[in-house]
Write a structure and sequence with these properties.
This is ABC-2 type transport system ATP-binding protein. It holds the Pfam family ABC_tran. GO terms for molecular function: ATP binding; ATP hydrolysis activity. The protein has two domains: 216 residues, P-loop containing nucleotide triphosphate hydrolases (Rossmann fold, 3-Layer(aba) Sandwich), CATH 3.40.50; 71 residues, Alpha-Beta Plaits. Strand 9 and strand 10 form a beta hairpin. The protein starts with a strand and ends with a helix. The longest helix is centred in the middle third of the chain and has 16 residues. By secondary structure, the protein is an alpha/beta fold. The protein is elongated and about 75 Å long. The relative contact order is 0.14. Helix content is 34%, strand content 32%. Helix 3 packs parallel to helix 5 and helix 4 runs antiparallel to helix 5.
Length: 295
Amino acid sequence: MKDIIQIKNLTKDYGSGKGIFDINLEVKQGEVFGFLGPNGAGKTTTIRNLMGFIRPSSGECKVMGMDCYRDAENIQKNLGYLAGEITFLDDLNGEQMLEFIASMKGQKDKSRMLELMNRFELDPKGKIKKMSKGMKQKIGIICAFMDDPDVIILDEPTSGLDPLMQNRFIDLILEEKKRGKTIFMSSHIFEEIERTCDRTAIIKNGKIVDVEDMKSLQQKKQKSYIITFSDEKKAIDFTKSRNDVIEQNSQKVIVAVRGEVNEFLNELTQYYIKDLDVRTQSLEEIFLHFYGGEN
């Protein structure tokens, strides 16, 4: 599959260590690509370059083979975008705002817009200036998807949404993925990245520190088994037989197991076990080591 988004040696240096530095990424056609990092890491600066809103200090980025800065107008004809900080015309109501955006896009068929309004339970009658953050976010999502673009760029798309609407948004992303849409989505919410993305780049202090395939990342998840033996002696005996024990305290033993668990479970059958509990490492815990320590 061809690369729909290409970022090569992209730098936007604001001075004092602020900005993005030597970013290299590519997003394939039909891929949902996550862009994960804490606030201030450089996610929005990268996206503003992709949208052609700012000129890079060096390097380049392309969408659908076109230069993001020089060809921004042509790119945006077939691109959906949701900004991290949405700015609307406050004197309009929600319906007027959606109609205004549709007219700017030259969109005559409103069926997709109406379907999305129904999906996200948007009442568009109220004035935008009186709307909550969540209501404005719904309008932003509808604007990004309503003209059925082939490429969608989303900056913190579920900010302000309640859990029900977050789930509906995730369902929308998965549907668009099945339809072959290319989606670039920045977030600091691990669950939505885990549930939707094929690959994810991790950015820290303006630099890419890793790009992970989500399927392989799932396999790296560590499971901790908390075993309660019948007595302390049995717990100690078991501990001596393994090199993956995290902790042993009286009758309880905590074991970290990666990958196949059959051998581990077979070994447990040799003991009388009073209780067994399992805790799976979260995606957030896997990524935390990228955010701590030395730069």
